[in-house]
Design brief:
50% helix, five-stranded parallel β-sheet, binds BIS(adenosine)-5'-pentaphosphate, Rossmann fold, alpha/beta, three-stranded antiparallel β-sheet, binds magnesium ion, 14% strand, 9 helices
């Protein structure tokens, strides 16, 4: 399946993409994760994107589209993918349409994770990520077994640089301005599906699985 995950910062896109990728083997492609890795490695890409990420702003489209275009050409994407956090504005959505038509394929669905705005700040500020493997936790909703230590690899859990409250608020306003219009864009294309992201992690995963099952059974 070729899926786009939409939703505001903190909606649970990355958490659900990880679970679905584990279950299906579909590659989980997140420009945010790719950029954070580049910053950590101190690469040229990392130097280009750091300032934007720290400010909660979108990285320029030419950089983001270039990175995604290259990633989508890798062989593991041939049978499908989960795009988490791309596209994030109309220009990126149009660039993705071009990539899909060049490859002679089409998106199966854009999944919109719906979460009330007032709980998103708490979700992001309470998030902790593993410095080693990138696994995601939440201090209250999804705590690790031992405080500050990753269940998967024993790495140290830290707060993302852009998860301080002021930056989260900026990211939410960028979402409202730039990304939310994509919900209509995909609705008009007839491929929008919605999942209630304001439930326990397992319940969100179950609803997503059911939505994707219905989609697979629908005649095209
Ligand atoms: P990115 O890394 O994509 O951040 P984001 O979209 O702001 O989304 P988040 O990762 O914050 O949220 P999420 O929906 O993945 O939630 P998660 O599952 O972690 O982007 C970061 C930056 O990179 C951008 O600001 C920009 O600078 C740049 N960038 C990225 N893509 C770009 C693009 N296309 N164009 C230009 N620039 C781009 O969950 C959040 C927390 O909630 C976690 O702690 C989790 O444990 C918890 N949680 C998850 N589900 C539940 C639940 N059901 N109940 C309770 N808690 C839950
Ligand atoms: Mg994420």
């Amino acid at each position: 399946m070729r899926l786009v995950f939409l939703g505001p910062p903190g909606a649970g896109k990355g958490t659900q993409a990880d679970l679905l990728s584990e279950k299906t083997g579909l590659p989980h492609i997140s420009p945010g994760d790719m950029f954070r890795r580049a910053v950590k490695e101190g690469s040229e890409l990392g130097r280009k994107v750091k300032e934007y990420m720290d400010g909660g702003l979108l990285v320029p489209d030419d950089v983001t589209v270039g990175v995604i275009r290259e990633r989508m050409l890798e062989p593991d994407c041939a049978a499908g993918f989960i795009l988490d956090g791309f596209p994030r504005n109309m220009r990126q959505a149009e660039a993705l349409d071009v990539m899909m038509s060049e490859a002679g394929v089409r998106l199966d669905a854009a999944v919109n994770f719906e979460v009330p705005f007032d709980i998103l700040v708490e979700r992001s500020v309470g998030r902790r990520v593993c410095r080693g493997c990138g696994a995601t936790y939440h201090l209250r909703h999804n705590p690790p077994r031992a405080e500050g230590i990753c269940d998967e690899c024993g790495g140290e859990l830290v707060q993302r640089d852009d998860d301080r409250e002021e930056t989260v608020k900026e990211r939410l306003s960028v979402y409202s301005r730039e990304t939310r219009p994509l919900v209509e864009y995909y609705r008009e294309k007839g491929i929008l599906v919605s999942v209630n992201g304001d439930q326990a992690l397992d319940a969100v995963a179950a609803e997503l699985a059911s939505v994707l099952r219905d989609l697979a059974e629908r005649p095209r």
